[in-house]
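Entry 12.
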Amino acid sequence: MTIPGIVLAAGASRRLGQNKLLIRVGGHSVLYHVLNTALAAPLDPIILVLGYEAEKALAAIARLKDSPKLRIVVNAQWERGRAESLKVGLTAVPPYAPGALVLLGDMPLMTSALIARVATAFLDTKKLCFPVYRGSAGRPVAIPRELFSEFARLHSDESGLKIIQKYWDTAVKLELTPDEEPTQWDIDAPEDLQSFLTMTNASSPSL
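Predicted 3D structure (tokens):
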């Protein structure tokens, strides 16, 4: 069994000063790595939400665009923040799906195995489900359909953390193994990018 995946990739990366999704690592863009990983996971369809520099993003994932699992939607209001992109993604989820699994486009060390672990736990329980990283909710997050309306009420760059905290006690929480911790690395600021490139060059030459 599969559930839909939503990849949020519409922002302008203002803190970084350049479009982080287009940064090339190991011959491919950050977004390419994330999308390729999602397509290899038990997710169907994959809803890719684009916005800022959408045409450049499409060019960066050109080799993946023909996947029958991929659905591309554009958030024309991307400047309003991440929450708006999440709303666009949730709206595109097929009506028969019991929920959706949300991924961020700036986490290129995410693995299909972790996605599958979260997806399987969700399909078994139909509850809010996510990994726990250093005591906090990590990614990806599987959201049951009955919570879509709460997440759709988020505004601007709200991340949904307050909703996750609200349902923390009843959610399915998966502890990360040590080798899974790099899946949670993202790129927000210049120092993140430098640290990421240093770490991946040393430990992940396959990227």
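Annotation: The radius of gyration is 16 Å. DSSP finds seven helices and ten strands in the chain.
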